[in-house]
Every structure is written in structure tokens, then in C-alpha cells.
Automatic annotation (TrEMBL):
GO terms for molecular function: nucleic acid binding. The lineage of its organism: Eukaryota, Fungi, Dikarya, Basidiomycota, Pucciniomycotina. It comes from the Eukaryota. This is Integrase catalytic domain-containing protein. InterPro entries: RNaseH_sf.
């Protein structure tokens, strides 16, 4: 399955899964307040691109295009994750009902 993104790149969706996984695993989740990588491993992964100097004079055009495509994919995925979180929050709040307990009811406490 292929699609063309807003910048005109053709993609096989499967090739974008690592970028989506990275964006998901390094974004802060509202339940824990931390990213899944921090919860599971104690740290967020650092990519080689994070160590590149920002003031390099020449970068190979293909490498720059790949970097820009990856950054664009991560940014877009982060936006979609934020929208999904808000949607799920609204759906939960809409359907959540406070349980009603009466005196003498048996409940399991933690």
C-alpha cells in the first residue's frame, strides 16, 4: 500500500512503521506522564542524527532529504498521537459513569 504525503514523497506504509514506533515510544503519555521508553528502559533512545552538528556546511542532499522526511513523519505522527489522545479522552469522559456504592456493599480495595 503506497501513499503520497503532503511534500510529494511516495511511501510504502510499512517503511514508515519504525518512525511511527519511535514517535510513539518517545512521546509523553498522559497516563504515566512519561514516555514508554522511559517507563520500560529508563531512558529515551538517542539517534545518530541527534549528534550531528547543526552548523555543518555541506550535507549530502540525499541524507538531508532522508532527514527531512523522517522529521516530517515524526512531527506528523506526534500531531496524530495528540489528536488521538484528545479523542480517546473525550470518548472516555462521555461514557464514564461514577459507580454508586451503598453502605454495606462489599468492594475490593487496593
Amino acid at each position: 500500500m503506497e501513499y503520497k504525503d503532503h511534500e510529494g514523497y511516495n511511501h510504502d506504509c510499512v517503511t514508515l512503521l519504525p518512525a511511527v514506533q519511535l514517535a510513539y515510544n518517545t512521546s509523553q503519555h498522559c497516563t504515566t506522564g512519561k514516555s514508554p521508553s522511559v517507563v520500560e528502559k529508563g531512558w529515551n533512545p538517542i539517534l545518530p542524527v541527534d549528534h550531528l552538528e547543526k552548523n555543518l556546511l555541506t550535507i549530502h542532499p540525499t541524507a538531508k532529504d532522508f532527514h527531512d522526511m523522517g522529521k516530517s513523519s515524526c512531527d506528523t505522527t506526534s500531531i496524530y498521537i495528540a489528536e488521538a489522545k484528545e479523542y480517546n479522552k473525550q470518548r472516555y469522559e462521555k461514557s464514564y459513569m461514577e459507580p454508586e456504592f451503598k453502605e454495606g456493599d462489599q468492594v475490593l480495595g487496593t
